[in-house]
Amino acid sequence: MFKCHICNSTESHIEYVNETFEINDKSYFVEKIPATVCSNCGKEIFSNKVSEAIRSTLNNQSDSSNQEQAEKQYGFGSLKGKIWMSNDFDAPLEELAEYM
Ligand SMILES: [Zn+2]
């Protein structure tokens, strides 16, 4: 059951959100990530499955065969074509690290 660790609310809903991930000193902007969002405070929480899929996809971005494998494994093919690097983004989302 959902329980927000910020405000302890148990009310949540699913939203598609945009987030920036810091991996290997590079920033990646990812669009339309399915996230559980706290209905009280708006905190976005990604499931382990989603976080793993994003990390795998980004880590293997230069290797298309690995990316395909990750998409197959996690059923996260919707990420395809929605990830790009941002060279000037300098605000890592540190709170996201605990979910990854
Ligand atoms: Zn909350």
What value does the average pLDDT take?
A: 74
Q: What's the oligomerization state?
A: single chain
Write down the domain tally. 1
Q: SSE string, helix = H, strand = E?
A: EEEHHE
Beta-strand residue fraction: 25-35%
Q: Compute the number of helices.
A: 2
Biggest sheet character: 4 strands, antiparallel
Specify Rg, calculated over alpha carbons: 14 Å
Number of strands: 4
Task: Specify the helix fraction band.
Answer: 10-25%
Please mark out the parts with pLDDT under 50 across 5 or more consecutive residues, or reply none: 86-92
Q: What name does the CATH topology carry?
A: Ubiquitin-like (UB roll)
CATH domain class name: Alpha Beta
In this entry the ligands are: zinc ion
Tell me what the CATH architecture is. Roll
Structure description:
This protein is of the alpha+beta class and 100 residues long. The protein has a single domain (1-74), classed as Ubiquitin-like (UB roll), CATH 3.10.20.860. 23% of the residues lie in helices and 31% in strands. The chain is built from two helices and four strands, in the order E-E-E-H-H-E. It has helices at 48-59, 64-74, and strands at residues 12-23, 26-38, 44-45, 83-86. Strands 1, 2, 3 and 4 form a four-stranded antiparallel β-sheet that branches. Helix 1 (48-59) packs antiparallel against helix 2 (64-74). It is elongated. The two termini are 19 Å apart. The model is unreliable at 86-92 (pLDDT under 50). The protein binds zinc ion. Zinc ion binds next to loops.
